[in-house]
Protein backbone atom coordinates (compact mmCIF):
# COMPACT_ATOMS: atom_id res chain seq x y z
CA UNK A 1 0.00 0.00 0.00
CA UNK A 2 1.12 3.55 -0.63
CA UNK A 3 1.50 5.67 2.44
CA UNK A 4 0.82 9.39 2.75
CA UNK A 5 4.42 10.46 2.14
CA UNK A 6 4.58 11.30 -1.56
CA UNK A 7 3.33 7.87 -2.52
CA UNK A 8 6.46 6.02 -1.42
CA UNK A 9 6.15 2.35 -0.56
CA UNK A 10 7.96 1.36 2.67
CA UNK A 11 8.79 -1.98 1.06
CA UNK A 12 10.55 -0.16 -1.76
CA UNK A 13 12.76 1.70 0.67
CA UNK A 14 13.92 -1.63 2.09
CA UNK A 15 14.58 -3.46 -1.16
CA UNK A 16 17.99 -1.97 -1.91
CA UNK A 17 19.00 -2.71 1.69
CA UNK A 18 17.86 -6.30 1.23
CA UNK A 19 20.10 -6.69 -1.82
CA UNK A 20 23.17 -5.44 0.06
CA UNK A 21 22.39 -7.46 3.18
CA UNK A 22 21.94 -10.64 1.16
CA UNK A 23 25.20 -10.01 -0.59
CA UNK A 24 26.98 -9.48 2.75
CA UNK A 25 25.53 -12.71 4.16
CA UNK A 26 26.54 -14.58 1.05
CA UNK A 27 30.10 -13.28 1.27
CA UNK A 28 30.41 -14.33 4.92
CA UNK A 29 29.29 -17.83 4.07
CA UNK A 30 31.72 -18.12 1.20
CA UNK A 31 28.93 -17.99 -1.38
CA UNK A 32 29.89 -14.70 -3.05
CA UNK A 33 30.36 -16.15 -6.53
CA UNK A 34 27.14 -18.10 -6.25
CA UNK A 35 25.24 -14.94 -5.26
CA UNK A 36 26.68 -12.88 -8.10
CA UNK A 37 26.00 -15.59 -10.66
CA UNK A 38 22.37 -15.71 -9.51
CA UNK A 39 22.03 -12.15 -10.86
CA UNK A 40 23.56 -11.97 -14.39
CA UNK A 41 23.39 -8.18 -14.31
CA UNK A 42 25.62 -8.11 -11.24
CA UNK A 43 28.32 -10.27 -12.83
CA UNK A 44 28.59 -7.77 -15.69
CA UNK A 45 28.64 -4.83 -13.29
CA UNK A 46 31.45 -6.27 -11.17
CA UNK A 47 33.77 -6.46 -14.14
CA UNK A 48 32.79 -2.99 -15.34
CA UNK A 49 33.21 -1.37 -11.92
CA UNK A 50 36.64 -2.96 -11.42
CA UNK A 51 37.82 -1.40 -14.68
CA UNK A 52 36.08 1.90 -13.91
CA UNK A 53 37.63 2.32 -10.44
CA UNK A 54 41.11 1.36 -11.65
CA UNK A 55 40.85 4.05 -14.34
CA UNK A 56 40.04 6.85 -11.83
CA UNK A 57 42.82 9.48 -11.57
CA UNK A 58 44.58 9.50 -8.18
CA UNK A 59 43.02 12.72 -6.96
CA UNK A 60 41.05 12.66 -3.69
CA UNK A 61 37.92 14.38 -5.09
CA UNK A 62 37.87 12.24 -8.22
CA UNK A 63 38.40 9.03 -6.27
CA UNK A 64 35.46 10.02 -4.04
CA UNK A 65 33.32 10.69 -7.11
CA UNK A 66 34.24 7.30 -8.57
CA UNK A 67 33.28 5.59 -5.32
CA UNK A 68 29.89 7.34 -5.32
CA UNK A 69 29.22 6.28 -8.90
CA UNK A 70 30.32 2.73 -8.08
CA UNK A 71 27.98 2.54 -5.09
CA UNK A 72 25.15 3.84 -7.26
CA UNK A 73 25.53 0.81 -9.50
CA UNK A 74 25.26 -1.56 -6.54
CA UNK A 75 22.08 0.03 -5.17
CA UNK A 76 19.95 -1.58 -7.85
CA UNK A 77 16.48 -2.88 -7.27
CA UNK A 78 16.58 -6.47 -8.62
CA UNK A 79 12.84 -6.22 -9.27
CA UNK A 80 13.20 -3.28 -11.68
CA UNK A 81 13.62 -5.57 -14.67
CA UNK A 82 10.53 -7.51 -13.64
CA UNK A 83 8.66 -4.21 -13.24
CA UNK A 84 9.48 -3.18 -16.80
CA UNK A 85 8.35 -6.54 -18.12
CA UNK A 86 5.08 -6.22 -16.21
CA UNK A 87 4.51 -2.69 -17.56
CA UNK A 88 4.98 -3.90 -21.12
CA UNK A 89 2.56 -6.78 -20.56
CA UNK A 90 -0.07 -4.48 -19.09
CA UNK A 91 0.47 -1.95 -21.89
CA UNK A 92 -0.35 -4.64 -24.44
CA UNK A 93 -3.44 -5.68 -22.49
CA UNK A 94 -4.68 -2.11 -22.58
CA UNK A 95 -3.85 -1.90 -26.28
CA UNK A 96 -6.01 -4.98 -26.83
CA UNK A 97 -8.84 -3.34 -24.87
CA UNK A 98 -8.68 -0.21 -26.96
CA UNK A 99 -8.77 -2.04 -30.27
CA UNK A 100 -11.54 -4.37 -29.11
CA UNK A 101 -13.64 -1.28 -28.42
CA UNK A 102 -12.47 0.67 -31.47
CA UNK A 103 -12.73 -2.13 -34.03
CA UNK A 104 -16.24 -3.01 -32.91
CA UNK A 105 -17.26 0.63 -33.17
CA UNK A 106 -15.84 0.88 -36.68
CA UNK A 107 -17.54 -2.38 -37.68
CA UNK A 108 -20.99 -1.94 -36.18
CA UNK A 109 -21.52 1.77 -35.44
CA UNK A 110 -19.34 4.05 -37.59
CA UNK A 111 -20.09 6.74 -38.80
CA UNK A 112 -22.74 7.07 -36.11
CA UNK A 113 -21.81 8.52 -32.74
CA UNK A 114 -21.42 5.64 -30.31
CA UNK A 115 -21.52 1.85 -30.19
CA UNK A 116 -24.19 -0.33 -28.59
CA UNK A 117 -22.00 -3.35 -27.79
CA UNK A 118 -24.62 -5.81 -26.59
CA UNK A 119 -26.72 -5.62 -29.76
CA UNK A 120 -23.78 -4.65 -32.02
CA UNK A 121 -25.62 -1.59 -33.25
CA UNK A 122 -25.30 2.16 -32.85
CA UNK A 123 -26.72 5.30 -31.28
CA UNK A 124 -26.61 8.86 -32.57
CA UNK A 125 -26.06 10.18 -29.09
CA UNK A 126 -24.60 13.67 -29.61
CA UNK A 127 -28.08 15.17 -29.29
CA UNK A 128 -28.82 12.97 -26.27
CA UNK A 129 -25.75 13.79 -24.14
CA UNK A 130 -26.93 15.64 -21.05
CA UNK A 131 -30.51 15.38 -22.35
CA UNK A 132 -31.98 13.26 -19.57
CA UNK A 133 -35.57 13.82 -20.69
CA UNK A 134 -34.63 13.20 -24.36
CA UNK A 135 -36.37 16.39 -25.45
CA UNK A 136 -36.20 18.06 -28.90
CA UNK A 137 -34.42 15.14 -30.54
CA UNK A 138 -33.67 15.65 -34.25
CA UNK A 139 -35.54 13.55 -36.78
CA UNK A 140 -32.94 13.34 -39.54
CA UNK A 141 -29.65 13.33 -37.66
CA UNK A 142 -27.40 10.41 -38.63
CA UNK A 143 -24.40 10.94 -36.40
CA UNK A 144 -21.14 12.89 -36.45
CA UNK A 145 -18.70 10.01 -35.89
CA UNK A 146 -18.14 11.24 -32.33
CA UNK A 147 -16.28 8.11 -31.24
CA UNK A 148 -13.88 8.43 -34.18
CA UNK A 149 -13.21 12.08 -33.32
CA UNK A 150 -12.62 11.10 -29.71
CA UNK A 151 -10.31 8.22 -30.68
CA UNK A 152 -7.86 10.19 -32.83
CA UNK A 153 -5.60 11.35 -30.02
CA UNK A 154 -5.61 7.86 -28.52
CA UNK A 155 -4.60 6.38 -31.88
CA UNK A 156 -1.72 8.86 -31.97
CA UNK A 157 -0.57 7.90 -28.48
CA UNK A 158 -0.75 4.21 -29.39
CA UNK A 159 1.41 4.96 -32.42
CA UNK A 160 -1.13 3.96 -35.05
CA UNK A 161 -0.36 6.60 -37.66
CA UNK A 162 -2.15 4.67 -40.42
CA UNK A 163 -5.54 4.66 -38.69
CA UNK A 164 -4.97 8.20 -37.43
CA UNK A 165 -4.44 9.49 -40.97
CA UNK A 166 -7.39 7.49 -42.32
CA UNK A 167 -9.63 9.04 -39.68
CA UNK A 168 -8.51 12.57 -40.58
CA UNK A 169 -9.12 11.93 -44.26
CA UNK A 170 -12.64 10.63 -43.65
CA UNK A 171 -13.57 13.50 -41.34
CA UNK A 172 -12.20 16.15 -43.72
CA UNK A 173 -14.29 14.75 -46.57
CA UNK A 174 -17.50 13.82 -44.76
CA UNK A 175 -18.01 15.61 -41.46
CA UNK A 176 -20.31 18.64 -41.43
CA UNK A 177 -21.87 20.65 -38.62
CA UNK A 178 -24.57 22.20 -40.79
CA UNK A 179 -27.12 19.93 -39.12
CA UNK A 180 -30.47 20.63 -37.54
CA UNK A 181 -29.53 19.13 -34.19
CA UNK A 182 -29.81 20.56 -30.67
CA UNK A 183 -26.67 19.65 -28.71
CA UNK A 184 -25.33 20.26 -25.26
CA UNK A 185 -22.70 23.00 -25.52
CA UNK A 186 -20.46 21.55 -22.81
CA UNK A 187 -20.52 17.99 -24.15
CA UNK A 188 -20.03 19.04 -27.76
CA UNK A 189 -17.18 21.33 -26.72
CA UNK A 190 -15.16 18.78 -24.74
CA UNK A 191 -15.82 15.82 -27.05
CA UNK A 192 -15.94 17.19 -30.58
CA UNK A 193 -14.24 20.59 -30.52
CA UNK A 194 -11.57 19.35 -28.12
CA UNK A 195 -11.04 16.18 -30.13
CA UNK A 196 -10.62 18.11 -33.38
CA UNK A 197 -8.22 20.67 -31.91
CA UNK A 198 -6.07 18.05 -30.21
CA UNK A 199 -5.89 15.89 -33.34
CA UNK A 200 -5.04 18.96 -35.44
CA UNK A 201 -2.14 19.83 -33.15
CA UNK A 202 -0.87 16.26 -33.24
CA UNK A 203 -1.19 16.06 -37.02
CA UNK A 204 0.53 19.38 -37.67
CA UNK A 205 3.52 18.56 -35.45
CA UNK A 206 6.14 17.02 -37.81
CA UNK A 207 8.02 15.42 -34.93
CA UNK A 208 5.09 13.07 -34.35
CA UNK A 209 5.38 11.65 -37.89
CA UNK A 210 1.70 10.78 -37.95
CA UNK A 211 0.92 12.02 -41.46
CA UNK A 212 2.53 10.44 -44.50
CA UNK A 213 0.59 12.47 -47.06
CA UNK A 214 -0.35 16.13 -46.89
CA UNK A 215 -2.26 17.78 -44.09
CA UNK A 216 -3.81 21.17 -44.85
CA UNK A 217 -5.43 22.03 -41.51
CA UNK A 218 -8.67 20.27 -42.37
CA UNK A 219 -9.44 19.50 -38.73
CA UNK A 220 -8.79 23.10 -37.70
CA UNK A 221 -11.22 24.29 -40.36
CA UNK A 222 -13.87 21.95 -38.96
CA UNK A 223 -13.11 23.14 -35.42
CA UNK A 224 -13.42 26.79 -36.45
CA UNK A 225 -16.76 26.13 -38.12
CA UNK A 226 -18.02 24.41 -34.98
CA UNK A 227 -16.71 27.19 -32.74
CA UNK A 228 -18.59 29.81 -34.74
CA UNK A 229 -21.78 27.81 -34.29
CA UNK A 230 -21.23 27.93 -30.52
CA UNK A 231 -21.06 31.73 -30.34
CA UNK A 232 -24.84 32.49 -30.38
CA UNK A 233 -25.15 30.57 -27.12
CA UNK A 234 -23.17 33.32 -25.37
CA UNK A 235 -25.55 36.09 -26.41
CA UNK A 236 -27.18 36.49 -23.00
CA UNK A 237 -27.45 39.48 -20.62
CA UNK A 238 -24.86 37.90 -18.34
CA UNK A 239 -22.51 36.48 -20.95
CA UNK A 240 -23.14 33.03 -19.48
CA UNK A 241 -23.95 30.63 -22.35
CA UNK A 242 -27.11 28.63 -22.84
CA UNK A 243 -26.61 24.96 -22.12
CA UNK A 244 -28.11 24.02 -25.48
CA UNK A 245 -27.50 25.21 -29.03
CA UNK A 246 -28.89 24.11 -32.38
CA UNK A 247 -25.88 23.75 -34.65
CA UNK A 248 -27.81 25.03 -37.65
CA UNK A 249 -30.33 27.48 -36.22
CA UNK A 250 -28.72 28.79 -33.04
CA UNK A 251 -30.60 29.09 -29.74
CA UNK A 252 -34.10 27.67 -30.00
CA UNK A 253 -37.17 29.63 -29.02
CA UNK A 254 -38.14 29.18 -25.36
CA UNK A 255 -34.85 27.41 -24.67
CA UNK A 256 -34.18 26.57 -21.03
CA UNK A 257 -32.05 29.13 -19.22
CA UNK A 258 -30.73 26.67 -16.65
CA UNK A 259 -27.16 25.46 -16.89
CA UNK A 260 -24.44 24.06 -14.61
CA UNK A 261 -21.26 25.61 -13.28
CA UNK A 262 -19.24 23.11 -15.31
CA UNK A 263 -21.35 23.82 -18.37
CA UNK A 264 -20.42 27.48 -18.57
CA UNK A 265 -17.10 27.43 -16.72
CA UNK A 266 -15.30 24.63 -18.59
CA UNK A 267 -14.95 26.01 -22.10
CA UNK A 268 -11.75 28.04 -21.92
CA UNK A 269 -9.20 25.35 -22.89
CA UNK A 270 -10.85 24.40 -26.16
CA UNK A 271 -12.10 27.84 -27.16
CA UNK A 272 -8.93 29.55 -25.99
CA UNK A 273 -6.86 27.13 -28.07
CA UNK A 274 -9.11 27.78 -31.05
CA UNK A 275 -8.47 31.52 -30.78
CA UNK A 276 -4.72 30.92 -30.61
CA UNK A 277 -4.79 28.69 -33.68
CA UNK A 278 -7.12 30.79 -35.85
CA UNK A 279 -6.25 34.29 -34.70
CA UNK A 280 -9.95 34.94 -34.05
CA UNK A 281 -10.29 36.26 -30.47
CA UNK A 282 -14.06 35.82 -30.28
CA UNK A 283 -13.93 32.25 -29.01
CA UNK A 284 -11.63 32.94 -26.08
CA UNK A 285 -13.36 36.24 -25.35
CA UNK A 286 -16.73 34.54 -25.02
CA UNK A 287 -15.42 31.71 -22.84
CA UNK A 288 -13.42 34.06 -20.63
CA UNK A 289 -16.30 36.49 -20.18
CA UNK A 290 -18.47 33.60 -19.02
CA UNK A 291 -15.76 32.35 -16.66
CA UNK A 292 -15.28 35.77 -15.10
CA UNK A 293 -19.01 36.29 -14.68
CA UNK A 294 -19.27 32.93 -12.99
CA UNK A 295 -16.46 33.86 -10.62
CA UNK A 296 -18.20 37.14 -9.78
CA UNK A 297 -21.22 35.11 -8.71
CA UNK A 298 -19.29 33.16 -6.06
CA UNK A 299 -20.25 33.50 -2.40
CA UNK A 300 -18.20 35.34 0.19
CA UNK A 301 -16.73 31.92 1.04
CA UNK A 302 -15.39 31.57 -2.54
CA UNK A 303 -17.84 28.74 -3.21
CA UNK A 304 -20.05 28.27 -6.26
CA UNK A 305 -23.35 26.46 -6.56
CA UNK A 306 -24.20 23.71 -9.01
CA UNK A 307 -26.84 25.19 -11.32
CA UNK A 308 -27.79 28.74 -12.30
CA UNK A 309 -29.89 30.85 -14.64
CA UNK A 310 -27.93 32.33 -17.56
CA UNK A 311 -30.37 35.21 -18.08
CA UNK A 312 -30.86 36.44 -14.53
CA UNK A 313 -27.48 35.33 -13.18
CA UNK A 314 -29.17 33.82 -10.12
CA UNK A 315 -28.21 30.54 -8.51
CA UNK A 316 -30.72 27.70 -8.66
CA UNK A 317 -28.92 24.96 -6.71
CA UNK A 318 -26.87 26.22 -3.75
CA UNK A 319 -25.11 22.97 -2.91
CA UNK A 320 -21.42 23.24 -3.78
CA UNK A 321 -18.92 20.43 -4.33
CA UNK A 322 -15.99 19.12 -6.36
CA UNK A 323 -18.26 16.59 -8.05
CA UNK A 324 -20.88 16.51 -10.77
CA UNK A 325 -21.92 19.91 -12.08
CA UNK A 326 -18.85 21.74 -10.76
CA UNK A 327 -15.86 19.40 -11.15
CA UNK A 328 -14.27 20.60 -14.39
CA UNK A 329 -14.63 24.26 -13.35
CA UNK A 330 -11.76 23.73 -10.91
CA UNK A 331 -9.85 21.65 -13.44
CA UNK A 332 -10.02 24.27 -16.18
CA UNK A 333 -8.93 27.15 -13.96
CA UNK A 334 -5.65 25.42 -13.15
CA UNK A 335 -5.06 23.96 -16.61
CA UNK A 336 -5.85 27.29 -18.28
CA UNK A 337 -3.16 28.86 -16.12
CA UNK A 338 -0.69 26.16 -17.21
CA UNK A 339 -1.64 26.44 -20.88
CA UNK A 340 -2.01 30.22 -21.23
CA UNK A 341 0.03 31.58 -18.32
CA UNK A 342 -2.51 34.19 -17.29
CA UNK A 343 -2.29 35.03 -13.60
CA UNK A 344 -6.04 35.60 -13.32
CA UNK A 345 -6.61 31.87 -13.72
CA UNK A 346 -4.19 31.05 -10.90
CA UNK A 347 -5.72 33.61 -8.55
CA UNK A 348 -9.19 32.23 -9.14
CA UNK A 349 -8.05 28.63 -8.80
CA UNK A 350 -6.07 29.25 -5.63
CA UNK A 351 -9.05 30.87 -3.90
CA UNK A 352 -11.43 28.15 -5.09
CA UNK A 353 -9.05 25.35 -4.11
CA UNK A 354 -8.46 26.70 -0.62
CA UNK A 355 -12.21 27.07 -0.14
CA UNK A 356 -12.76 23.46 -1.22
CA UNK A 357 -10.19 22.25 1.30
CA UNK A 358 -11.79 24.32 4.05
CA UNK A 359 -15.46 23.55 3.49
CA UNK A 360 -15.61 20.18 1.66
CA UNK A 361 -12.77 18.10 3.01
CA UNK A 362 -13.43 15.60 5.78
CA UNK A 363 -10.33 13.46 6.18
CA UNK A 364 -9.74 11.81 2.80
CA UNK A 365 -13.33 12.46 1.66
CA UNK A 366 -15.04 15.51 0.19
CA UNK A 367 -18.69 16.14 1.00
CA UNK A 368 -20.95 18.84 -0.43
CA UNK A 369 -21.67 22.14 1.34
CA UNK A 370 -24.00 25.11 1.09
CA UNK A 371 -22.26 27.82 -0.92
CA UNK A 372 -23.47 30.59 1.42
CA UNK A 373 -22.93 29.05 4.85
CA UNK A 374 -20.32 26.39 4.18
CA UNK A 375 -22.35 23.86 6.16
CA UNK A 376 -22.45 20.24 4.85
CA UNK A 377 -25.42 19.34 2.67
CA UNK A 378 -24.81 15.88 1.17
CA UNK A 379 -22.32 13.32 2.47
CA UNK A 380 -21.77 11.39 -0.72
CA UNK A 381 -19.03 10.31 -3.08
CA UNK A 382 -19.68 10.77 -6.77
CA UNK A 383 -17.56 8.87 -9.26
CA UNK A 384 -16.64 12.11 -11.03
CA UNK A 385 -14.85 13.22 -7.86
CA UNK A 386 -12.16 10.63 -8.60
CA UNK A 387 -10.49 13.17 -10.92
CA UNK A 388 -9.60 15.32 -7.89
CA UNK A 389 -6.40 13.49 -6.82
CA UNK A 390 -5.04 13.97 -10.34
CA UNK A 391 -5.73 17.69 -10.13
CA UNK A 392 -4.03 17.81 -6.73
CA UNK A 393 -0.93 16.28 -8.28
CA UNK A 394 -0.75 19.24 -10.66
CA UNK A 395 -1.04 21.57 -7.66
CA UNK A 396 1.68 19.64 -5.83
CA UNK A 397 -0.58 18.49 -2.97
CA UNK A 398 0.63 14.90 -3.22
CA UNK A 399 -0.17 13.79 0.32
CA UNK A 400 -3.82 14.82 0.02
CA UNK A 401 -4.01 13.23 -3.44
CA UNK A 402 -2.67 9.93 -2.08
CA UNK A 403 -5.16 9.92 0.75
CA UNK A 404 -8.25 10.50 -1.40
CA UNK A 405 -7.12 8.20 -4.20
CA UNK A 406 -6.65 5.33 -1.77
CA UNK A 407 -10.23 5.67 -0.54
CA UNK A 408 -11.64 5.77 -4.07
CA UNK A 409 -9.71 2.60 -4.86
CA UNK A 410 -11.07 0.90 -1.74
CA UNK A 411 -14.59 1.56 -3.01
CA UNK A 412 -13.57 0.17 -6.42
CA UNK A 413 -12.25 -2.99 -4.76
CA UNK A 414 -15.39 -3.33 -2.67
CA UNK A 415 -17.75 -3.35 -5.67
CA UNK A 416 -15.48 -4.33 -8.56
CA UNK A 417 -16.00 -0.96 -10.25
CA UNK A 418 -16.85 2.55 -9.01
CA UNK A 419 -20.57 3.23 -8.44
CA UNK A 420 -21.91 6.57 -9.60
CA UNK A 421 -22.81 7.66 -6.05
CA UNK A 422 -21.82 6.25 -2.69
CA UNK A 423 -23.38 7.54 0.54
CA UNK A 424 -20.51 8.24 2.93
CA UNK A 425 -22.65 8.63 6.04
CA UNK A 426 -24.29 5.22 5.55
CA UNK A 427 -21.46 3.46 3.69
CA UNK A 428 -23.90 2.21 1.03
CA UNK A 429 -24.53 2.78 -2.65
CA UNK A 430 -27.09 5.42 -3.60
CA UNK A 431 -30.30 3.42 -4.23
CA UNK A 432 -31.00 4.91 -7.67
CA UNK A 433 -27.47 5.62 -8.93
CA UNK A 434 -25.79 2.22 -8.97
CA UNK A 435 -24.36 2.41 -12.47
CA UNK A 436 -20.80 2.62 -13.80
CA UNK A 437 -20.60 4.00 -17.37
CA UNK A 438 -16.92 3.07 -17.95
CA UNK A 439 -15.75 6.33 -16.40
CA UNK A 440 -12.02 7.20 -16.57
CA UNK A 441 -11.49 9.40 -13.51
CA UNK A 442 -9.87 6.82 -11.21
CA UNK A 443 -7.52 5.68 -13.99
CA UNK A 444 -6.70 9.33 -14.68
CA UNK A 445 -5.70 10.05 -11.08
CA UNK A 446 -3.75 6.80 -10.91
CA UNK A 447 -1.72 7.89 -13.94
CA UNK A 448 -0.95 11.31 -12.43
CA UNK A 449 0.04 9.85 -9.07
CA UNK A 450 2.37 7.31 -10.64
CA UNK A 451 3.99 10.07 -12.68
CA UNK A 452 4.53 12.08 -9.50
CA UNK A 453 5.74 9.30 -7.22
CA UNK A 454 6.86 6.36 -9.40
CA UNK A 455 5.40 4.17 -6.67
CA UNK A 456 4.69 0.76 -8.32
CA UNK A 457 1.65 0.37 -6.09
CA UNK A 458 -0.18 2.57 -8.59
CA UNK A 459 0.71 0.10 -11.33
CA UNK A 460 -1.03 -2.55 -9.23
CA UNK A 461 -4.07 -0.27 -9.02
CA UNK A 462 -4.02 0.08 -12.80
CA UNK A 463 -3.76 -3.67 -13.21
CA UNK A 464 -6.78 -4.14 -10.94
CA UNK A 465 -8.78 -1.65 -13.03
CA UNK A 466 -7.83 -3.43 -16.25
CA UNK A 467 -8.81 -6.82 -14.82
CA UNK A 468 -12.14 -5.47 -13.59
CA UNK A 469 -13.00 -3.90 -16.94
CA UNK A 470 -12.20 -7.10 -18.80
CA UNK A 471 -14.00 -9.28 -16.28
CA UNK A 472 -17.21 -7.31 -15.87
CA UNK A 473 -17.67 -5.08 -18.92
CA UNK A 474 -16.04 -6.80 -21.91
CA UNK A 475 -18.49 -8.43 -24.30
CA UNK A 476 -18.02 -9.77 -27.86
CA UNK A 477 -19.24 -6.45 -29.31
CA UNK A 478 -17.04 -4.11 -27.27
CA UNK A 479 -17.22 -2.84 -23.67
CA UNK A 480 -20.62 -2.26 -22.06
CA UNK A 481 -21.53 0.12 -19.25
CA UNK A 482 -22.65 -1.40 -15.94
CA UNK A 483 -26.26 -0.67 -15.08
CA UNK A 484 -26.07 -2.01 -11.51
CA UNK A 485 -22.73 -2.57 -9.77
CA UNK A 486 -24.35 -4.85 -7.18
CA UNK A 487 -25.41 -7.38 -9.82
CA UNK A 488 -23.08 -6.37 -12.69
CA UNK A 489 -26.04 -6.15 -15.01
CA UNK A 490 -24.87 -4.46 -18.21
CA UNK A 491 -26.25 -1.61 -20.28
CA UNK A 492 -26.07 -1.45 -24.08
CA UNK A 493 -23.77 1.58 -24.37
CA UNK A 494 -20.06 2.11 -24.99
CA UNK A 495 -19.37 5.77 -24.32
CA UNK A 496 -16.90 7.54 -26.55
CA UNK A 497 -14.89 8.64 -23.52
CA UNK A 498 -13.94 5.01 -22.90
CA UNK A 499 -11.61 5.31 -25.90
CA UNK A 500 -10.75 8.98 -25.39
CA UNK A 501 -9.91 8.70 -21.69
CA UNK A 502 -10.22 5.36 -19.90
CA UNK A 503 -8.04 3.37 -22.29
CA UNK A 504 -5.70 6.33 -22.86
CA UNK A 505 -4.89 6.95 -19.20
CA UNK A 506 -4.41 3.24 -18.55
CA UNK A 507 -2.07 2.99 -21.52
CA UNK A 508 -0.07 6.04 -20.39
CA UNK A 509 0.16 4.57 -16.90
CA UNK A 510 2.14 1.64 -18.29
CA UNK A 511 3.87 3.46 -21.15
CA UNK A 512 4.45 7.19 -20.76
CA UNK A 513 6.83 7.54 -23.71
CA UNK A 514 4.39 9.85 -25.50
CA UNK A 515 4.51 12.45 -22.73
CA UNK A 516 8.00 11.72 -21.38
CA UNK A 517 9.83 14.56 -23.12
CA UNK A 518 6.99 17.05 -23.70
CA UNK A 519 4.64 19.12 -21.61
CA UNK A 520 0.99 18.37 -22.24
CA UNK A 521 -2.18 19.25 -20.44
CA UNK A 522 -5.14 16.95 -20.96
CA UNK A 523 -8.60 18.41 -21.33
CA UNK A 524 -11.40 17.08 -19.18
CA UNK A 525 -12.11 14.64 -22.02
CA UNK A 526 -8.50 13.44 -22.09
CA UNK A 527 -7.41 15.23 -25.26
CA UNK A 528 -3.75 16.34 -25.09
CA UNK A 529 -2.76 19.93 -25.89
CA UNK A 530 0.92 20.72 -25.84
CA UNK A 531 2.03 23.59 -23.61
CA UNK A 532 4.01 26.03 -25.75
CA UNK A 533 5.66 29.26 -24.68
CA UNK A 534 4.27 31.29 -27.56
CA UNK A 535 0.76 30.86 -26.18
CA UNK A 536 1.89 32.48 -22.96
CA UNK A 537 3.29 35.47 -24.82
CA UNK A 538 0.73 36.12 -27.52
CA UNK A 539 -2.76 36.92 -26.28
CA UNK A 540 -5.70 38.16 -28.35
CA UNK A 541 -5.02 41.86 -28.76
CA UNK A 542 -8.62 43.04 -28.80
CA UNK A 543 -9.42 41.41 -25.50
CA UNK A 544 -6.21 41.39 -23.50
CA UNK A 545 -4.62 44.64 -24.70
CA UNK A 546 -4.54 45.93 -21.14
CA UNK A 547 -1.90 43.37 -20.29
CA UNK A 548 0.37 43.93 -23.30
CA UNK A 549 3.66 45.73 -23.37
CA UNK A 550 2.91 49.08 -25.01
CA UNK A 551 4.91 52.02 -26.24
CA UNK A 552 3.78 55.66 -26.11
CA UNK A 553 2.90 55.61 -29.79
CA UNK A 554 0.60 52.66 -29.25
CA UNK A 555 2.62 50.31 -31.42
CA UNK A 556 3.53 46.89 -30.14
CA UNK A 557 6.97 47.13 -28.57
CA UNK A 558 7.38 43.42 -27.93
CA UNK A 559 5.49 40.19 -28.34
CA UNK A 560 6.19 39.36 -24.71
CA UNK A 561 3.41 40.24 -22.31
CA UNK A 562 3.76 42.13 -19.09
CA UNK A 563 2.31 39.09 -17.36
CA UNK A 564 5.20 36.92 -18.51
CA UNK A 565 7.74 39.67 -17.72
CA UNK A 566 6.27 40.24 -14.24
CA UNK A 567 7.18 43.95 -14.12
CA UNK A 568 5.57 47.09 -12.76
CA UNK A 569 5.56 50.44 -14.60
CA UNK A 570 7.40 52.13 -11.77
CA UNK A 571 10.46 50.04 -12.56
CA UNK A 572 12.77 51.81 -15.01
CA UNK A 573 13.39 49.05 -17.51
CA UNK A 574 15.03 51.27 -20.08
CA UNK A 575 16.44 54.53 -18.74
CA UNK A 576 17.59 55.55 -22.19
CA UNK A 577 14.02 55.64 -23.46
CA UNK A 578 11.95 56.97 -20.54
CA UNK A 579 9.02 57.77 -22.79
CA UNK A 580 8.24 54.04 -23.03
CA UNK A 581 6.37 52.30 -20.26
CA UNK A 582 5.15 48.84 -19.42
CA UNK A 583 1.84 48.19 -17.80
CA UNK A 584 1.95 46.27 -14.56
CA UNK A 585 1.73 42.50 -14.51
CA UNK A 586 -0.45 42.81 -11.44
CA UNK A 587 -3.07 44.94 -13.19
CA UNK A 588 -6.62 43.58 -12.95
CA UNK A 589 -9.26 45.88 -14.47
CA UNK A 590 -12.47 46.77 -12.68
CA UNK A 591 -15.42 44.65 -13.75
CA UNK A 592 -17.35 47.63 -15.09
CA UNK A 593 -15.86 50.01 -17.64
CA UNK A 594 -17.45 52.96 -15.83
CA UNK A 595 -15.86 51.71 -12.54
CA UNK A 596 -19.23 51.45 -10.78
CA UNK A 597 -19.52 48.75 -8.13
CA UNK A 598 -21.66 47.27 -5.39
CA UNK A 599 -18.86 45.55 -3.46
CA UNK A 600 -15.06 45.24 -3.35
CA UNK A 601 -15.27 42.04 -5.41
CA UNK A 602 -16.08 44.12 -8.48
CA UNK A 603 -12.89 46.18 -8.16
CA UNK A 604 -9.53 45.18 -9.56
CA UNK A 605 -5.84 45.88 -8.91
CA UNK A 606 -4.36 49.29 -9.73
CA UNK A 607 -1.99 49.26 -12.72
CA UNK A 608 0.40 51.83 -11.27
CA UNK A 609 0.74 50.91 -7.59
CA UNK A 610 -0.28 47.21 -7.71
CA UNK A 611 -2.70 47.95 -4.84
CA UNK A 612 -6.20 46.51 -4.48
CA UNK A 613 -8.94 48.95 -5.43
CA UNK A 614 -12.03 49.12 -3.22
CA UNK A 615 -15.64 50.14 -3.63
CA UNK A 616 -16.51 53.53 -2.13
CA UNK A 617 -19.67 54.41 -0.25
CA UNK A 618 -21.12 55.99 -3.38
CA UNK A 619 -20.36 52.93 -5.53
CA UNK A 620 -17.13 53.63 -7.43
CA UNK A 621 -13.88 51.64 -7.51
CA UNK A 622 -10.68 53.46 -6.54
CA UNK A 623 -7.70 53.68 -4.19
CA UNK A 624 -9.76 54.90 -1.29
CA UNK A 625 -7.83 53.25 1.52
CA UNK A 626 -4.58 54.96 2.60
CA UNK A 627 -1.34 52.97 2.59
UniProtKB/TrEMBL annotation:
Keywords: Calcium, Endoplasmic reticulum, Glycoprotein, Glycosidase, Hydrolase, Membrane, Metal-binding, Signal-anchor, Transmembrane, Transmembrane helix. GO terms for biological process: endoplasmic reticulum mannose trimming. It is a single-pass type II membrane protein. Its main location: endoplasmic reticulum. Its cofactor is Ca(2+). It is found in: Endoplasmic reticulum membrane. Ca(2+) binds at residue 524. InterPro entries: EDEM1/2/3, Glyco_hydro_47. It comes from the Eukaryota. The active site is at 187 (proton donor), 327, 420 (proton donor), 441. GO terms for cellular component: endoplasmic reticulum membrane; endoplasmic reticulum quality control compartment. One of its GO terms (molecular function) is calcium ion binding. Belongs to the glycosyl hydrolase 47 family. This is Seven-hairpin glycosidase.
